[in-house]
Each structure stands twice: as C-alpha cells, then as structure tokens.
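Kindly inspect this one:
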Amino acid sequence: MNRVTLIRLAATLALCLIFGLGTRRLKLIPTRFQSLIEMGLDLVRVNIAQEILGKKDGSRFLALLTTIFFVVLFFNLTSVIPGFQLAGTSVIGVPLILAAVSYLAFIYAGLRNNAIGFTRNSLFPPGVPWPLYIIVTPIEIVSTFILRPVTLVLRLLMNMIVGHLLLVLFFSGTTFLFLEGPGLLKILGVGTFVFGFAFTLMEILVGVLQAYIFCLLTAVYIQLAVADDH
C-alpha cells in the first residue's frame, strides 16, 4: 500500500459514487447532474461504440468501453487534484492491466465471431502472394499481437509521466524562486507559476484525450477482429 495505490482507490471510489448517485434516481426530465452523467455515457455510446462498431457490436461491448474510458479518465485527472498530484496511470500497473483487457477483448471478439477466419487472416493477410508470407507473417504476429498492447501501455504511461514531471519542475521552481531566490530572481517565480498553470490546463486536456484515445483504439481493434473479411 503506497501513495499511488491510495490515489487509485480514491479515484475508484469517486467514480463509483458519482455514477451511483447520478443513476440512482433517474428522471424523465434530468437534473443537471444526471444530464452531465448522460453526456459522458453518450460520448462513449454514440461517438465510439456505435460509430466504430455499429449498433449491434457497439451494444455488446459498450460496458467494457465505458469502463475503460472512465477509469482512464478519473485515474488521469488525479494528476491535477491538490493533495494527489499524481496520475493513477503514471505507474505501469494500471496501463498494463487496461491494455491486457483491451487485448483480450480483441482476441475474444475475433475468436467468437469467426475463429478460423480471424486466425487465418491475422497471420496470413488475404491478397498476398504465398512466398511473401515468409516475411509478412512474422511482421503481422509482431504488429498485431505484440505491438498493439505495448503501444497502448506506453502511450498512456509516458504521456502521464511527462505531464507529472513538467508540473513538478515548474511548481518546484516557483517554490524555490519565491522562498529562496535572491533579489530580483524572485520575479522569475511568476513566470514559472504561469507556465505551471498553463501546463496544468494542458494536463487536464491530455488526460481527457488519452482516455478517449485508449477507448477509441480498443473499439478499433475489436472492429478489426469482427470485420467481415475475418
């Protein structure tokens, strides 16, 4: 049990409370809080699940995609909350688990839809001359079954680590210049504070975008697995 684990538990508790309270007493004419919850759910349902997978497959995988989006979002935004100031996704454990879930959903969707066709077309893409499979098949194995989950992990992890380091740099510099900077150097603390505030806003934007991208790529991988040519 360490700081990042406590942050993850707090983010999970906040996520459960918000959706529990927001959906406990649904009304035909929604309150502002209910409207906010519905907007978030519609973002995943309409713009990701149905847009990428269609209504049928979108409904099948909606719960998974919704969970992935909001878990990544809430864990990312802890990086800008005073007292936390560290993203729950800035340590590799959670990105690794989420990438594994995304990868298993991709494999499950392909095998469930057409096991033989999915396996054959993943390893031996149609339209390629047979002699070239000696080169193409190893590339497909690496790109499809190894690089996809690895890139999901690294994209999320590195973005949140870099954001955290930038915020630490600017606000540590602000504290040092204001408290210990000699003479006119204290004025530079204003600049580092402004940059720190600007990067805080950028960190919020990056946190939202990374949640959207992670969820979107999961939907795209599932769509590739259930595509007709598989």
The helical segments are 3-22, 32-60, 62-77, 93-123, 133-180, 188-226. Residues 3-226 form one domain. The radius of gyration is 22 Å. The longest helix spans residues 133-180.
